[in-house]
Amino acid sequence: MIYARFSTPLGPAYVTLQGDALAGIYFEGARHAPAIAAGWQRNDGHPAAKACARQLAEYFAGTRESFDLPLAPRGTPFQQRVWSEIARVPFGTTITYAQLAARAGAPEAMRAAGAATGRNPLTIVVPCHRIVGTDGALTGYAGGLERKRRLLELEGALQPALV
Which pTM value belongs to this model? Predict the structure, then answer.
């Protein structure tokens, strides 16, 4: 497996690559993030990795609302449908897990849609942070709820928390 590391305002991250495409984008230490194994080859100069790091930097700077990257996530057909629907949720908006399940063609499968969302291998680019509980509660983000909150604040979909 080829991988590359980069920094974000929300902590260190890395990408995994399948040929010329991104197979995964993970915050270090996130739930379901694969551990970098001894046999993996680091290549921070890989064109897709560099493009990902640049586009994420633009996103965090507030100058990018969508991504144009080669993607190759691996998952079941149901997961692929869920991830495809997540990718359609516009910048600055949220939908519920129930709405996501319905959009993925399985309105009765809210929990399965939630599980597929949690296994999304392409954090931010496939914006699973935009999926919320039925009452709008921030639930179930593999990168941690604080990151989810900050991403939604960045997009204007959530008011900043008062400290």
Answer: 0.93
